[in-house]
Amino acid sequence: MPKRRKKKGRVRKFFLYLFILGVLTSLFILFQKEISRTLQPLLERFDLAKERREVVLYFSDRDGDYLIGEQRKIEKRKETKEEIKAVIEELIKGSKKGLIPTLPPRTKCLHVQLDPKGRAIVNFNKSLAKDHPGGSSGELLTVYSIVNSLTRNFSQIQEVQILIDGKPVETIAGHLSLRHPLTSKSDLVKK
To answer: How is the chain split into domains, by residue range?
Structure first.
């Protein structure tokens, strides 16, 4: 007799758990939008709900001869120019895989503009030129890490114009003319 009661008690508990689970599942399905709206700020705060986009950033190899691509994820933004700025900011942070940075660490991206003709205009602070270590290879890799990172990640960008403090500059370190917008240079990318 006592074994039968214990068995009946377990069966009742099992069905009670199933009933509660069914009610909770039904409530979740009915109020899914309200629940997700309520939890959205919390998820965003902990960076769990943000949609990401994969990009390839170009940094220098150890010898300073070529650019090597490094995959990175950036947060998707409402406007393309915000994503462009995010790519530049990731370039400034440098490589996470031991490649050589191409932009001086105090460089700031002040503003990004994208015109309908496919030209990205990227405005940097003075540190891009002032803190640049110099050399023709270094300057070449700096410029084309920016140009290739933008033209290869954004199909609408055909060319890149680099400005410093809102003004066109002749050069960053004296070796490469920046008077005109530049297009991607794939022969600098190590395969």
So the answer is: 2-45, 52-188
